[in-house]
Amino acid sequence: MEQGKIKKILLNVLKFVVSFGGLAYIFWKVPFVEVCGHWTATALPWIGLILACTVFSMAIQANRWRGLLLDEGKKIKFRTFYAYIALGYFFNNLLPSGFGGDAVKTIAFGRRFGNTANSVAAVAISRMMGLLAMFLCFFATLPFVISRYQIPALYTGAVCAVAVLSAFIIVSGLFSDKIRLPGTLTSKVPFLLKLQDAFSIYRGYKKAFALSGLDSIWLQLSSIAIHYAYFQAVGVPVDTATITVFMTITITVSMLPISINGIGIREGVNVSLFTGLLGIPADTVLAAALLGYIPMVFQALQGAVVLVGSKKD
Predict the structure, then answer these.
(1) What does the alpha-carbon distance between residue 68 and residue 211 come to, in Å, rounded to a whole number?
(2) How many C-beta atoms lie closer than 10 Å to residue 238's C-beta?
(3) pTM, entire model
């Protein structure tokens, strides 16, 4: 147990070093004062669009989660799902993994409404469907981008690998009831059997599964609009095809569990792509990238309101 705690501490220290070391290096190369110079009043309408798209994205996520809970989801008000989505974002921005908020909102939801296994399955499938929608948009726009820019094979390889893994996880989940788990394991963790049933049930609900895919596409289009607005806000328009491909690469690389929620990694990848391939000055790229913390703070603030409100109840 002690050894496990030490490994966890060392991993968190590594994440801290990578994140803040990465930021320190970037801003040593590109003075922060130069970055700030790109934030002017002309960015405000675009920031308004970013916040509107953020609310829309959270609403889509809530609707997708509700739909995947099938008949049980229909019994619960939509605003409840939205509240738990916000709560998840609050903890995502506090916990170093970037995924901790999913666990918090799922467990809290399950304890309140008594269907933890189904909630876990719905959230997990939502995550994977969201990734698959992102990769679908990536591969649809990639031919238009690689005809103009030479994207490093390491980046495209990473996206392909995670895309295959996401598809494998989805298929494995749908047919998880076909996997015979060891009796010694299920006796210790009986919840695994419930989880198998919760995942496999979607084979019989093709419409709900398809609608979750449609919601994921809408969610991805909203994300593209948000990233497009970042560069519009600093006065350097970038076409949506390039935004889609570079955004997918950045998100995929940022998912590596070596930093705190991708901080430091995300900024470095943005500079390597938009500056290295498009020739946009690094200070401009960073000014656009740092606007990405606005929706994160906005989501976390909504989650904080939910958390405070739940304690009063």
Answers:
(1) 9
(2) 18
(3) 0.87
The pLDDT value given to residue 235: 93
Write down how long the chain is.
Answer: 313
For 20-30, letters b (16+ CB in 10 Å) and e give eebbeebbeeb
Burial of 31 (0-12, 13-18, 19+ CB in 10 A): exposed
The radius of gyration of the chain from alpha carbons, rounded to an integer in Å, stands at 20
| DSSP class of 274 | I
**Structure tokens that stand for 97 in this block:** 């993994």
Q: Is 131 exposed, middle or buried (0-12, 13-18, 19+ CB in 10 A)?
A: buried
Closest to 254 in 3D by CA, of 130, 155, 170 = 155
Nearest-10 crossing angle of helices 78-92, 100-113: 140
Q: What is the pLDDT of residues 210-243, one digit of tens each?
A: 999 999 999 999 999 999 999 999 999 999 999 9
